[in-house]
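Z., the sequence and structure:
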Amino acid sequence: MRSVYGRFVVRRADFDDPVHRLGALWDVGRPTRSGVSPAPTIHTLRRLFIEGGTVESGEVDEIEPDFEDSLRDEGLLEQVPTGVRATVRISLWRGLVIAHDRPPGVQIPRDIVLRPSPTTRTVATLTVRRRCRRALDVGTGCGALALLAAAHADEVIATDVNPRALWFTELNARINGIENVRCVEGDLFEPVSGESFDLVMGNLPFVQSPDTEFLFRDGARREGRDISETAVVASADALAPDGFATLLVNWLVIDGEAPTAAPLSWVRASGCSGLVLFHSVQSPRTYATNWAHGPDDDVDEWVEYLRSRGAVSVANGAIILHRSKPRKVRSAKMSVSPSGEGGRQVERVLRAPSLDDEAVRSSRPKIVMPYTSTSRVRHDADGRTLRPIEIHLADTAGIAGVVQPVVAEVIDRLDGVLTVGEAIAAQRTASPGTVSPELEAAVVSTVRALVVAGIMEPGESTPSA
């Protein structure tokens, strides 16, 4: 068994399938229990598939007889003057062995399938992971998100308009011995119209581009909508009750609008609860410079396109939908990169109750473990000033908690045993004269904000007498 995202997945090895043997690349660089390096066969595979080098004909057959012919028949090896080389590259990613296209040259193929990227990592981290019946990976690419979901979903459907992407997804399922992923060709949600899923994931081509050249990048407008908005609407329609959808999105910020106006409007129109995670904004020129890397891309053309649509900037972030009642629509700033199992914080945010002042006072909250807190001191001509304390969870969606120094001592007392009211009373006893009505109100407001941010668990409440 191998650990995948904190869970164990039984690799049902089909030893008659030559492709499955590429899963041995997971052990590259790992010493055996005796401290001896892996067998030379591993180094042959590494040279071919990870380093992109060549080996002499016949070397591959030292792994097992006819292995070279088998890989050639699969389209994974080709003859070159110096021997044989792999037609694909392999990356090791989150407990998985992932095949993808080789790095492109000057001319980028329209249907290129890339390795798991930082955006893949973000979607993976923000995804709410729990046992479920059906999961959907829209625009699957190399299939990395679908294969991760296979660890906790009975069935995973992977869709893509790019046949090459589906070929890689099926290949990667075979390499990793995963049998519960099914690939369907088609545009976005079209192949699964009318079906419902407990989990939807999408690392879609979200880039606000005037082009449709690259399948992996360009989020062209469809029926008056950007692909990001289209995906939000379609994800909501596809979600089963209590289902979650995680989507990475870009959107235009129009003059006079708040930075999160567009995605919040999409979520409100979806009929689902939702969380908009706002990361950053860029000017049209900065955005175009960062993305317009194709041989025929023109930065000025991109800038003109964005401005013609009324954009003063382009924002990026994520949207997580939850098919739940009562509906909650929330937004938060991502102050750090998501890490660990950030989906845990996402789920707490979307399930967090709306607490009035009395409910907060009677609750027994505590900060989710593990976490780090950072406090800063500002020194200037007027002396020394304590800055707000930031709380970051180990499993974070990028949302930090902020605690003003004046309420920090009371927050520190909240351990899931004391109610907020009892913690305030304890502070009043310990430091007579320091607990004012304003401080009490600040404590209540801070606890409420930390619960909504998924930093604190509200715990049980003590009923009012």
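The domain at 16-90 is CATH 1.10.10 (Arc Repressor Mutant, subunit A). The mean pLDDT is 88.

Let me know what you think.
H.
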